[in-house]
Amino acid sequence: MFKAWRKRPMGADESRALLGASVRGMDVQQLSSDLRDAPPWTLLHQCTLEKWKEGHAAAAGFKETILTCDGVLHKECSPSFCIKRQGIINLHKSSNFFSFRKRSKFTKLAEHFEYNHIPAQLSSIQNFHVKSVVCYQGNLVVLHLVRNTSSQFGLIDLSVNKFLGIFGQNELEINNDSVRGELSPDNTKCLIKLPYLTWRNRRSPRKYILEVYDLTPKKFTQINRIDLQCQDSHFCFDPRFNCSRIAITNYEKGSRNSLSLVQMNTWDVVAVNPCVDDTRPDMYPNLKELLYSPDGSLIIGVTMETVCFCEEKRPRRSYRPIHCAIFVFSADTTDTLHCVRYQQYACGQHLCPVNYLPVFSTCRSRVAVVMNVPDLPSVTYVDVYKLPVTANLQSLCRTVICQTFTEEEIKNLLLPPKLIQFLNFAPQYN
Q: C-alpha angle 217/116/110, rounded to 5°?
């Protein structure tokens, strides 16, 4: 049975003892050295979100300082793309751009991509418009496009601001909530889950499918498709195996609370955990996200209560906080290793997922989570935990090097290219 840790606010003296020196100018390397011997899942630090932005994030080895977002899902943000983190400045809705489109369909996310990235020939002449971002990794963005009540997908390279092409044409328009996608670590494959729609079952689809697309230049072809046994399923690529292995929930027939490791070439199950969340018989609709740790040794599942107060007009302090949990599994056996439980005053149904997704440090040995203390909804805290490190010499050396040098310094080290790739957490197995 896994170990569960319930939230305990860190005392003021304990917090100051840990990172007080960082406020006086302690660098990342010194902090890393002090915390290197802490056992896994130790609560290394707790601070307010304001202090996190003022310097505690850098002192703990984190680049990401934006941990909250007020964006509405599928309007300002998507499940995989946050306009606040991307620093997007949106057009005003009073703008005259896209006047041929109905105003009721305007969203900030769609407006940004249509104005900045979609060719004018597609948007004005062929009547393509953007519904949402399906998935995003590095400089590649997969968009959900609609043309004449028919859903398709488009690929954009943000590094050169170029629209690369369209793939995956469907007969009918699909709701954003029903589409989920994932790019492989090498950006050559894309997995998309969507309902199988026909004119007869367009309102209540009977089955969901998982499609695999080849995104290599000038191809954009579907190379495989399988039927999913239920509509509720999250999946993600194992970063160690490029595009050959995924973790997926509820893959086996009859399962409603399972996690499986699947080989992409044969779709065989490598390992399965039949009981992901032992507090409820079905993990859905509570499961919000499934992701790998950057080194691929852990699988993390984020769950939240399905309580929403977005339409309420009462003051925030009159609500009860929502119970959240982060389940941690072995990426080799799917065994449950740990569970961190905490509380938040946030909506997991309508707000941007940035509010509840964990972030990793640059050395990938720590994880940060945003939480609230009951009866203090106006104060947001950030908890930093130490992650377990794979017990082999290569991984241990990589962790120490990443804690000692910055990402730019690692690129300039006099090491063979393959070692540099390993230090940058490139896939180990093709």
A: 95
Q: Which amino acid is at 234?
A: H
| Nearby residues of 346 by Cβ (< 8 Å), 6 or more positions away | 322, 355, 356
pLDDT tens digits, 397-426: 888 888 888 888 888 888 898 888 888 888
- List strand residue ranges (DSSP E) for 230-331, in order: 235-237, 245-249, 259-263, 269-273, 287-292, 298-304, 322-330
The CA R_g of the chain, rounded to the nearest whole Å, is 22
Distances (CA, A) of 212 to 116, 185, 295, 405: 28, 14, 24, 38
What pLDDT score does 29 carry?
Answer: 47
Report yes or no: 364 and 399 within 8 Å, Cβ to Cβ. yes
pTM: 0.84
pLDDT tens profile 38-59: 788 889 889 999 999 999 998 8
Q: What are phi and psi of 203, to 5 degrees?
A: -90, -25
In this structure, the dihedral spanned by the alpha carbons of residues 292, 296, 297 and 298, taken in order and rounded to 10 degrees, is 0
**Residue 354: burial class (beta carbons within 10 Å; 0-12, 13-18, 19+):** buried
Could you give the CA distance from residue 256 to residue 104 in angstroms, rounded to a whole number? Answer: 37
Model pLDDT for residues 299-310, shown as the tens digit of each residue: 999 999 887 766
- Give the three-state DSSP class for 384: strand
Q: Are 49 and 67 in contact (CB under 8 A)?
A: yes
CA 325, CA 389: separation in Å to the nearest integer? 21
Start-to-end CA distance of the chain, whole Å, equals: 33
Sign of CA dihedral 69, 71, 72, 75: negative
H helices present in 117-193, as ranges: 120
Is the separation of the CB atoms in 226 and 209 below 8 Å?
A: yes
DSSP code of residue 18: H
Among the residue ranges 75-89, 187-201, 309-323, the one predicted with the least confidence is: 309-323
Which residue, 281, 328, 274, is CA-closest to 301?
A: 328
Contacts of 160 (CB under 8 A, 6+ apart): none
Phi first, then psi: what are they for 240, rounded to 5°?
-80, -20
Q: Which two tokens stand for residue 129?
A: 């418009």
